[in-house]
Specification:
By secondary structure, the protein is an alpha+beta fold. 60% of the residues lie in helices and 13% in strands.
């Protein structure tokens, strides 16, 4: 039962379990408490079993094998199609690049399809084989959804902690690196929210459906889980909004800094433009320049330029431009 292979397990009502073949899974769910079949989308044998031997409606099979999907819930008679997502904890992966798992759930049977490995699924499988896992369809969905949400919370908390650290740094300075980290944090919050919002709606719909394989206690647990996911969403929105405010503040500080520098350059330009004109005029190489033969001419011109600069400064002050 590797991360890229299909498998099937059967669970008795007393919790005893064993691995079974795909062929045995076709009829076993009528005889035991739960049969869980986990299909890897690129496993030809598993996909063939799903299409030809699972007994599912072709529309349901197509939905399970669809490459692009969002969290959703759809009821088909006594069964349900449920798409969920969990944070990506695979090596060298970004947690916010959430991994999907597609489920067909009915009395005594769960069929799941995966494209990428999801650690939560592996842990549930290990518990089942250790005779300590879910024993029916409702319990399976409840435990899976709960553990997916529990694994999401630390990621959201880490985003909040990162943002708090960036807020402290922003009190000192908002350099290019801090600005980049702000953008990344905000982007991660947005990506998580994009999947968690429809997941909350799917779980809410499931908790209100009158499915006979879902007990009242399991519905109540799912409703509590919806409240937990709602709080997670509120925290994500808070992270996103705080990051946006810090980015706006960073842009404002940058604009103010540029404006101050441009202001200084403009003042210098205004002061030296007439002085430059005067020195250029006096520097032309023609006869008749006043004071050309006097030893005090340079000092006099320099003094005249200084007086002109002072007069310009006073004029700019009076106008309120400085």
């Amino acid at each position: 039962m590797g991360p890229t292979t299909s498998f099937s397990v059967s669970v008795e009502e007393n919790g005893q379990s064993q691995a079974i073949s795909l062929a045995e899974a076709t009829q076993a769910h009528h005889q035991v408490g739960l049969v869980w079949t986990h299909i890897y989308q690129q496993d030809a044998e598993g996909v063939a079993w799903l299409q030809n031997s699972s007994g599912l409606d072709p529309m349901v099979v197509d939905a399970l094998l669809a490459e692009q999907t969002r969290p959703r819930f759809a009821r088909f008679r006594d069964g349900a199609l449920i798409n969920l997502r969990g944070v990506n904890l695979n090596p060298n992966a970004r947690p916010e690049d959430m991994v999907s798992i597609r489920l067909w759930v009915e009395e005594g049977r769960v069929i799941s399809v995966f494209f990428r490995h999801l650690r939560t699924v592996r842990e549930i499988c290990d518990r089942i084989l250790a005779h300590n896992g879910p024993r029916n369809s409702g319990q399976f969905v409840q435990e899976l959804a709960t553990e997916l949400a529990d694994r999401t919370q630390p990621i959201i908390e880490s985003l909040d902690q990162t943002l708090s650290a960036l807020e402290e740094l922003s009190l000192k300075s908002l350099n290019q690196e801090t600005h980049r980290r702000l953008a990344v944090t905000r982007q991660r919050a947005i990506r998580l929210k994009r999947y968690i919002v429809p997941q909350r709606e799917a779980l809410s719909q499931l908790s209100h459906e009158d499915l006979h394989w879902l007990t009242q206690r399991q519905r109540a647990s799912l409703q509590n889980l919806v409240d937990q996911v709602t709080r997670d969403l509120e925290e994500l929105e808070d992270v996103r909004d705080r990051a946006a405010l810090l980015q706006e503040e960073a842009e404002s500080r940058r604009a103010d800094d540029i404006n101050r520098k441009l202001y200084v350059l403009s003042v210098v330009t205004v002061i030296f433009m007439p002085l430059t004109f005067l020195t250029g005029l006096l520097g032309i190489n023609v006869g008749g320049i006043p004071g050309a033969a006097s030893h005090w001419a340079f000092a006099g011109v320099t003094g005249l330029l200084l007086v002109g600069a002072v007069v310009e400064l006073i004029y700019l002050r009076i106008k309120g431009w400085l």
